[in-house]
Amino acid sequence: MIKINENYLKLASGYLFPEISRRVKSFSTKNPDKNIIRLGIGDVTEPLPPAIIEAMHNAVNQMGSKTDLKGYGPEQGYDFLIEAIITNDYKSRGVSLENTEVFVSDGAKCDTGNLQEIFGIDNVIAVTDPVYPVYVDTNVMAGRTGKADKSGRFAGIVYMPCTPDNNFVPELPKEKVDLIYLCFPNNPTGAVAKKEQLKKWVDYAKANKAIILFDAAYEAFISDNVIPHSIYEIEGAKEVAVEFRSFSKTAGFTGLRCAFTIVPRELKAWTSDGKAVDVNPIWNRRHCTKFNGASYVSQVAAAAVYSADGKKQVRKIIELYMSNASLIVGTLKKLGFEVYGGVNAPYVWLKTKNKMTSWEFFDYLLNKANVVCTPGSGFGAAGEGFVRLSAFGDPVNVAEAMERIKKI
Ligand code: MLT
Question: Is the pTM for the entire model greater than 0.85?
């Protein structure tokens, strides 16, 4: 008899974003005349900029040529992309990395979900609450948790509440934890962490022989100069942190797929008898076994993000999304809402009014304004009573969404 992995049965029936799509689809089937504006999932709406398209066309032509065809590439990614990443994203911020510390992949979602599998099952996991659901769900699937309670919190996970009182940056846990997921700029709250705040986490990880999984997928949206873009801007972080980055939001690659993960040479984990093990070769081993590399065309496209034209064009798109964010923040504040984020991040975190739950507010906005948001409770118990609005959208649609919200 084939047995199922029963850990999967502990999960809520649907992943958050497909569940939202299901509800929106059902609404639009019943109301075919309604023009729905989607500010739910953080998916890009602007076309890829010309420098990237041109590079891709050239790469496609190479794939059609007997002499230039690329078959399997290096699992870790091509050096031309790895070198562009190191120079532009890290050297420029005073962080030195070796090529072997960068692992190119097809998405930060997969990487943040997969990385846990190289660590022991008995590690104690700490996540912020609210949190990007992938971190929690993949640990549930792996069997690192018990069942969920009514609020959706799984037994065995340490949840670190992020609320207006702590500016959505969590306090250090009272208990000892081994694997800590942090995401800054934060999805979903749009909060950022200062250097001193990240330093506390690096110090904690060092003192407790823990590892931080730092999701920096939204670093390109930081506008405030004092906010670090990488956890490696904190001294000693290479000894205790993995960092995830993505071209999805930075450069509109959600449909193209390219991302990367940094696993420093200094990073160590321990065997049960206390022997130190280098994490980098273990991740490399896993990566080579389970992954054949991101497509050549995607990697050429990603390298074009760092060309002079690519940088300018990508920046313009980021500015467009961030001007959506400031319109959303400004409008909602004027309407008397409690609003967070939207300054160094493309997400706006909004407290509902009249004690509405997140899903009640989601339904209200969908029914009355035909605008889709993401219910905060879908990101965790501490997200109850909040919703997230994404700034990824056509500016005309975002402006229209704000007008509709004003009217209701
Ligand atoms: C989100 O809306 O939170 C993200 O787009 C989801 C993702 O990156 O997987």
Answer: yes
